[in-house]
Amino acid sequence: QVQLVQSGGGLVQAGGSLRLSCAASGPTFSSCVVGWFRQVQGKKGELVAGLSANGGNTYYADSVKGRFTISRDNAKNTVTLQMNSMKPEDTAVYYCAADAHSRWLLNHEPSQYEYWGQGTQVTVAS
Prior knowledge:
Elements: E1 3-8, E2 10-13, E3 18-25, E4 33-39, E5 46-51, E6 58-60, E7 68-73, E8 78-83, E9 92-99, E10 115-116, E11 120-125
Parallel strand pairs: 2-11
Antiparallel strand pairs: 1-3, 3-8, 4-5, 4-9, 5-6, 7-8, 9-10, 9-11
């Protein structure tokens, strides 16, 4: 069992930066793939960034490549999404998620992730 508690987010001007953090509890977190999803009302959740259990495999959506960085600290059971050069189209509710059935393969489907944070609103003002 893994529990995820998110922090960070809020309102930022276009071009600014925000950091989202996710603190995990549970003995299996370090063996899980982790991902950050975002969802705009009425649309399907989108995998923004994913990271394998050992940190060796990463994924970024084309829309955030070069601007967002996902990282994890398995000793502290945390995962972070650093968001730079933010754009109004980054506005969404962001969720951290963990896939306990994969250590390496980064699934893009939200349904593949068993554990979810509570969600954090990120708003980028133009």
